Amino acid sequence: MWFENLTLSIPVERYWQALLDTLMMVGVSSAVAFLAGIPLALLLIVTAPGGFLQSPTTNRLLGYVVNGFRAVPFIVLLVALIPFTRYVVGTTIGVWAAIVPLAISSTPFFARIAEVSLREVDPGLIEAAQAMGCKKWHIVRHVYLPEAMPGIIGGFTITLVALISSSAMAGAVGAGGLGDLAIRYGYQRFDTQVMVIVIVLLIAMVTVVQYLGDRCVRWLRTR
Fold first, then answer.
1. 173-185 burial, b if ≥16 CB within 10 A, otherwise e?
2. How far is CA 28 from CA 11, 69, 78, 106, 117, in A?
3. Per residue in 96-119, pLDDT tens?
4. Do residues 117 and 148 lie in contact, with contact meaning Cβ atoms separated by under 8 Å?
5. Interatomic CA distance for residues 160 and 113, integer angstroms
């Protein structure tokens, strides 16, 4: 076959290491976004007008914080958080330095998507649970989350895809991963081969994530 005689301009080990770095960045930051985003979304729902913990002031403040972080482009946030990143992980370059802004950027993004799914839960179910004397935690645990979970997982899939894109963008400041490989070897050295391979790997990652996310959503909806 034609590809048997293909000569790579850089060793395959570099691609493998860059892929592992990207998976690390996306994996850790998405876990943080999931664990922090769902409680944040629940707070936005239950403190909103009509929620069982109605608190307009708290809801407004949370909304301002979430909207503020979402409004800042990731590359700007990446640079703005350099002092905080250095304080948290002790460095401003490398994989772990990228995880901090990735997690901070993706958490409010995912929280808003999860909030939309939680808001679509039938109010009649909430009222029925309250009429039966369910405690607030039970309503969250047994009504809100199970009913909204397909939408939440669908939103988490979107967040993962956005994180893959942002992790590649973080390569512009030496974060490592596929983005760093594309910039240092593909762009700065005008190596088209590296750019093409990195793009193919990123497309493959997004395709796999989207496929698994869609399968998971379909499974949750048929339970």
1. bebbbbbbbbbbb
2. 27, 19, 16, 11, 23
3. 888 888 999 999 999 999 999 988
4. yes
5. 12
